[in-house]
Design a protein that fits this description.
380 residues; mainly alpha; 3 domains; 2 strands; globular
Amino acid sequence: MKKIILFVSCVALLACQSKPTKTNTIDYGFMPPPLWNSSMQNMKQNMITLQPYIFNKVVFNDRDNFQFLSKSIHKLAIESANIKHDPMISTRDPTVRFVASQFADELRRADENFKGPWKEYSRSQLVKVTNYCLECHTRLHQGPSFEKDEVEAPFMKTLPVADQIEFMIAFRQYDAAYKMVLANLSGTQKNKDVNFKIDRIVQLGLLISVEYLKDEERTRKITQAIDHNPSLPAYLKQSNEVWKKSIENWSQQGNINTLVQIRSLVNSRISQIEDMRAISALLQLLTNDLNQDELGEALMLTGQSYEALHAISIMSLDENYYESCIRKTPETKWAKVCLDKLSDSLNMGYSGSGGTRLPRHVTAQLDELKNVIKNADLKK
């Protein structure tokens, strides 16, 4: 189900790129340049064509479909390499070009693997790239906003509630998503499975009210709804007491916008709310003119806070921020910190019952990043 929501989200986002984007601070921020327009539209058509195959293992691996899929996947990989982003977007988030490059690399590898003996791995990669679509289009609060009729998918209402909420977050339907959170918090929870689901719904609600809306009062209403519902599990009630403390600190601290304030916030972390507040402030800070040391620390803190929220939402590419920190500020102390954090994150991601085995391309990536820092040190 998660794969479906990712893929549909990416298709819909691509479909919206032919229009000027409306932001919170600018009525209509920009019109995508012709090349971006064309590439995005072509990718949208290719993805729509591939959708029935990607989510059907048997059909995808059917020999009769090999020529068609080989051609379609290759076209998708070619189009992804031609995408160019408007300068306004690139200045709002220094990792946009980097994420776009990874998006293209993943599709290139999917193209190569499909033509080789790794067709099923290629299928998983085609699903994975939709993560980049969601992440790239949802990180900044001033990013694109879409109308309801532009984002509705036929089977959206068949998805679990948490996935519906995350789907709406991806398309900046914050009010509707927030209302759904409160509606579910007012209902009676009867079994452990539902309790697990309500836990994620609550955390997504906090993500909306804290990180995206930056609304203390709406955040407080979530905690009040938890207090007023006796059917909610005890552990959620306990977590709620911690969230209340974070909200109280928020009330006392007010808005934060400097690196010193953000650093202090993260270091005094009580709950995920501090990380949500930090990300919101950091993405704003990263649009400013920062020196190398400031940029390195800001990217490191962004990756760190995203990593802390990784279990809540798919919309997190913390490893991208760590890598961006290394590549953009290799001569700073933060590059080494980010390398260690990236290495730990990758090892954790590839660990299992049989131990940790990093794929060859991942170890090559880490070795290359070590050399980036080493070469920067030699130039000092």
